[in-house]
Amino acid sequence: MTLDVLKSLSLTRITIGVMVLAGLLLFPPLAYFCGAMMILAGLTGFCPLEKLYTWLLGAPASCSLAAAPGAGRAAGQDLQDMSADQIKTAVAEKYSAVARTPGAKFNFPVGRKFAESVGYPADALDALPAAMWDSFTGAGNPQPYVDPRPGETVLDLGCGAGLDLFFYAKAAGNGAKLCGLDLSGAMIEKARSNLEACGIRNVEFLNVSADAIPLSDASVDLVTANGIYNLSPDKDAVMREAHRVLKPGGRTIFAEIVLKSALPEEIRKNISDWFRCIGGALPKAEFVARLTAAGFREVKVLWEGRNARTGHELAVCAVIRAEK
Questions:
Q1: In this structure, how many other beta carbons lie within 10 angstroms of the beta carbon of residue 20?
Q2: What pTM does this model have?
Q3: Distance between CA 202 and CA 200 in Å, rounded?
Q4: Within this chain, do residues 118 and 10 fall inside the same structural domain, yes or no?
Q5: Does residue 101 form part of some domain?
Q6: Smaller CB count within 10 Å for the chain: N or C?
């Protein structure tokens, strides 16, 4: 059996099944051990077999009896074997799973606890429908730095279920024009429902990739995002598109995971690494240089820090501002 085939199998479940069967037939304590291991995984999220197989094969693995939505062969696929379109399809499927079943287990933080941990106020979240924050899975919290002004046109790249977009709509007012873009159709539908439930009508939604934004040149005052670049195979194209749609003097302010230095290749070889915004992350200096190459000026890192998205020691969340 080849390594690629092994990676496509749910190895922990096969192993647990064999161990339970062997325990029942030959050595009962082995079956008890498997049960205890599954309880440990359920209570703490730690699975010894998962760690073993990830270390040996880079295989996606879970001790749970049901796979997380959006899991499957793509979850264990090597990035080098995937085209840009395949990566975008995998990202759309994964984040559609987050939209539909936010309580499932993912290899990145999702939901209210994460939102509060990066600074979204609990009282503000209390006032919103749970569907607005239960699928939250941004890179961090750009809200203290994003400055929508009354009447402006604001584009949110990777709007998710609409949490950030809601706050921008409140700040920009009814006379503003807002646009939420996301690759996941399920996220777009959830965001539309959430904002309608909150009485916000001045929002247009685009279910497209951020590397081909269907808006006119120089039509937007502010482009913002919360973790879109690391999920995009062609980051330069996304930067160029953000620059193109901005009006002269317009600005982009966004949160993203960046690196203190380049990651070892073995850390960024699998599509699962891409989903958690580490496989596609760039060193901070390179990210800033690419923004400049795309035509932006006055590129500044306004803030940086760590959160549940920055699991690797080289990763930090940065809020970046640049002008056209």
A1: 17
A2: 0.76
A3: 6
A4: no
A5: no
A6: N
